[in-house]
Amino acid sequence: MNIRIFDHAEQVGQAAATIMAAQVLEKPAAVLGLATGSSPVPAYRQLIRMHQSGALDFSQVTSFNLDEYVGIPEDHPCSYHRFMQENLFGQVNIPSDNTHVPDGNGVNLEETARAYDEAIQAAGGIDLQLLGIGRNGHIGFNEPGDEFIWGCHVVTLTESTIDANKRFFASEADVPRKAISLGVGAIVAARKVLLIATGKDKAEAIRGAVQGDVSPRLPASILRTHPQVTFLLDRDAASLL
Ligand code: GLP
């Protein structure tokens, strides 16, 4: 596990964007695993700047997002479809057919989940998976539990996650209680993994992920089993290491 610590969140974003850009330059048809939440936003901003300056071409890139809420429309202000459109896809030249975000509105979500894993396999797997981390150590929406869930699945969100994510919604009651998420299988099968964490409220989860047991009680700890994982942290997120 490679851990890099920076003074500011903006530098974390720059470093993440540099690694992602290097992946796309090395393999223009790269398959990127993408994340939502506030942590990746500085990285996405930097990737957009690189694209606008002509340094980065997304025309052959394929992307798979980690997760989506169940039961809110794609154009809902808090949906991850909309987040990706506004924070990256709408501002770079990735073909929309190449972008994938789980559909949280399907009639058969188990089937949606199975097809999502198959689509990743069919694309040749993920070259570089970008991750944030929840305060409770979740990755994607893999919440703490008794066992790691390997495949894409429907998840019931924990109170901790609902509380953390209510800031994006009008009220806590509006936060969806379910989501569809890649399992840890597709994440650890990615050839490289990049986890971004900034801020004091991530420090405990980062300590658990880096120094605790590998346990489904702290899903990010599974990353310790991965041969090519990099954690990009600011000083606050790294403060308990
Ligand atoms: C959500 C997402 C995660 C993300 C986490 C942290 O729960 N499903 O993928 O990592 O939030 O978000 P933030 O970066 O806003 O703290």
Structural features, described:
It contains seven helices and ten strands. The chain has a seven-stranded parallel sheet with strand order 1-10-9-6-2-3-5. Strands 4-8-7 form a three-stranded antiparallel sheet. Helix 1 crosses helix 2. 2-amino-2-deoxy-6-O-phosphono-alpha-D-glucopyranose binds next to helix 5.
Tell me about the largest β-sheet.
7 strands, parallel
Q: Which ligands occur here?
A: 2-amino-2-deoxy-6-O-phosphono-alpha-D-glucopyranose
Q: Would you report the number of β strands? A: 10
Shape: globular
Key terms for this structure?
241 residues; three-stranded antiparallel sheet; 7 helices; binds 2-amino-2-deoxy-6-O-phosphono-alpha-D-glucopyranose
List the helices and strands and how they pair.
Blueprint: E1 2-6, H1 9-26, E2 31-34, H2 41-52, E3 62-65, E4 67-69, H3 80-87, E5 99-100, H4 109-122, E6 128-131, E7 153-156, H5 159-165, E8 178-181, H6 184-189, E9 192-197, H7 203-211, E10 229-234
Parallel strand pairs: 1-10, 2-3, 2-6, 3-5, 6-9, 9-10
Antiparallel strand pairs: 4-8, 7-8
Helix pairs in contact: 1-2
2-amino-2-deoxy-6-O-phosphono-alpha-D-glucopyranose binds next to helix 5.
Task: Please sum up the structure shown.
With 241 residues, the chain is of the alpha/beta class.
